[in-house]
UniProtKB/TrEMBL annotation:
Keyword set, alphabetical order: Signal
Family affiliation: Belongs to the OprB family.
Record's signal peptide: 1-23
Name of the protein described by the UniProt record: Porin B carbohydrate-selective OprB
Entries under Gene3D superfamilies matching the protein: Carbohydrate-selective porin OprB (2.40.160.180)
């Protein structure tokens, strides 16, 4: 497996260059058709993200899985249709307080884009406090930032349909919220290996067969939303980011802030449907090193402990082809990496009571399903509306920490006509823990002299308001309530910790819309 994956990576560039076809073209904001329904020529492959005002006749090209122009950590996910006179569009302008977009930055971005070079990035700063419940009360600050380059190889090297993506991220701050709430998984936005500057992605992205097939290979991370994900999740600052928490907890892959070798194949049978699958090197060694996935020892294949293989199929629409956009997908994950049994030691005894090293096991499988649907609009022509979404992750073999995970939420895009780019979100997530993990935690409490039973289920709720105060800049106050904090990170769990309250403020700056930088379109589904 190691040799075959290494060979695939080494020969990928020449092979894809030979097979390449002309890359897709998508319209920029400035090239939207007028209200009459007439279309203008489209011959560029960039998304122009400068949005000082939303013109009444604008037609928004949108990510298929969520409302158009919602700031996210990722570039758009699908291939938008050309807007028509029937496409939904933003009717009212957003009253921004200020703008960071200057002609200087705009001109630099356009000059670079003409040469095939696109800057991208974000900065998310979050201040949070735990005033009630949990195991401690206090406040803390975290910062998560990313900076990257996307290269259009058609312009740079005359390779049709080819792109290169590079992204590095930085995690910094005062540690995890679990030190206050007691919940190890109630706050995952900054759950990284450690503070540090790390490679998130370094890939070759190739469109083939008239944009019916897309091959991505290099250093990447399936947990970052590539599978079982939605940009909509990143509108919630606490326990949702890119994917449902169950996938993050149960997979052998290291944290989503780093990367390992992988290949993903995406097939588009129709405009609205897709099938994709991939294989990644499971490299737990990354969790215990300060190497941060930069070129070095972990770029070899000798640190691999197995393969992480997800597959997914789905159906997605957007505002250019559906007045009530929807997204449905179903997936399966096979993870053959080693993991530690949550209950038994190598002698087959409960390790919490008898000590020793955890029993080594191999192989886990997981099934998941997701659904998102805009169900109501105040105006059928507008992009404002109410979205329902839900997800379920079910372990089908192995003893991962979470047996079943469920997500249910509602997202109101443009709750007020006067502020069409603001949002209100509410989400609830329930984690049902594996029976062996429950027994291990009960044994741990028993050994410490407690007679309490560890709760086999943890539920989290978040409600927030996202105020889009400037192009690409959103200020989001939020409130979180946790039932039965898990205390999994504590060597001595405390009894009678039944709830925790957390509140905070997130400042999210997406560089492309904030500074008027063009964005190179990529296809994820």
């Amino acid at each position: 497996m190691k040799a075959s994956l290494a060979g695939a990576v080494s020969f990928l560039g020449p092979l894809l260059a030979a097979m390449a076809v002309q890359a897709q073209t998508v319209p920029t904001t400035g090239q939207q058709p007028a209200a009459t329904g007439t279309t203008q020529p489209v011959n560029v492959t960039v998304w122009q993200s400068r949005q000082h005002t939303v013109l009444q006749k604008e037609r928004a090209v949108t990510d298929p899985s969520m409302p158009g122009l919602v700031p996210s950590l990722f570039t758009p996910g699908g291939i938008p249709s050309k807007p028509t006179a029937n496409s939904a569009h933003s009717i009212a302008p957003q009253p921004y307080l200020f703008s960071l977009d200057t002609k200087g930055g705009d001109n630099v971005g356009k000059t670079m884009a003409r040469a095939g070079v696109y800057l991208t990035g974000w900065d998310a700063s979050e201040y949070s406090g735990v005033p009630a419940g949990g195991i401690n009360h206090g406040s803390f600050f975290n910062n998560f930032a990313g900076i990257g380059l996307d290269l259009d190889m058609q312009k740079l090297a005359h390779i049709p349909g080819a792109k290169i993506h590079f992204l590095a991220d930085d995690v910094a701050g005062q540690g995890h919220a679990g030190e206050f709430t007691g919940s190890n998984w109630g706050y995952v936005s900054y759950w990284g290996n450690h503070d540090g500057f790390q490679i998130r992605e370094f890939t070759w992205d190739q469109a083939l067969f008239k944009n019916k097939v897309f091959l991505l290979a290099g250093r990447s991370m399936p947990k970052g939303g590539e599978f079982d994900g939605s940009d909509l999740y990143c509108k919630f600052p606490t326990f949702m980011c890119s994917v449902p928490t169950t996938m993050t907890i149960n997979g052998s892959m290291p944290s989503f802030v780093t990367s390992s070798w992988g290949v993903r194949l995406l097939i588009k049978p129709t405009e609205k449907s897709y099938i994709k699958g991939g294989i990644w090197e499971a490299e737990p060694w990354l969790k215990a090193t300060n190497h941060n996935s930069w070129p070095g020892p972990d770029w070899g294949f000798d640190k691999s402990e197995g393969e992480f293989i997800p597959v997914e199929g789905g159906y997605r629409t957007n505002f250019s082809n559906d007045r009530f956009p929807r997204a449905y997908d179903i997936g399966f994950i096979y993870d053959d990496a080693k993991y530690s049994d949550p209950l038994y030691n190598t002698a087959g005894q409960p390790k919490a009571l008898f000590g020793g090293n955890a029993q080594s096991r191999r192989g886990r499988t997981q099934f998941y399903i997701q659904a998102q649907q805009m169900i109501w609009k105040p105006d059928a022509r507008d992009t404002r509306g109410l979205i329902l979404f839900g997800a379920a992750n079910i372990m089908t073999s192995g003893d991962a920490p979470v047996k079943d995970g469920f997500v249910l939420g509602v997202f109101d895009w443009g709750p007020f006509r006067a502020r069409p780019r603001d949002s209100v979100g509410l989400v609830v997530q329930t984690l049902r823990w594996d029976r062996r993990l429950v027994q291990d935690m009960n044994d741990t409490m028993q050994k410490q002299g407690h007679h309490n039973q560890w709760n086999g289920q943890e539920t989290m709720l978040e409600i927030n308001y996202g105020a889009n105060i400037a192009p690409g800049i959103t200020l989001t106050p939020y409130f979180q309530y946790i039932w039965n904090p898990d205390e999994l990170a504590m060597s001595r769990p405390q009894p009678d910790v039944h709830y925790a309250v957390q509140s905070g403020l997130l400042l999210n700056i997406q560089f492309n819309p904030a500074f008027g930088l063009p964005m190179l379109h990529r296809v994820r589904n």
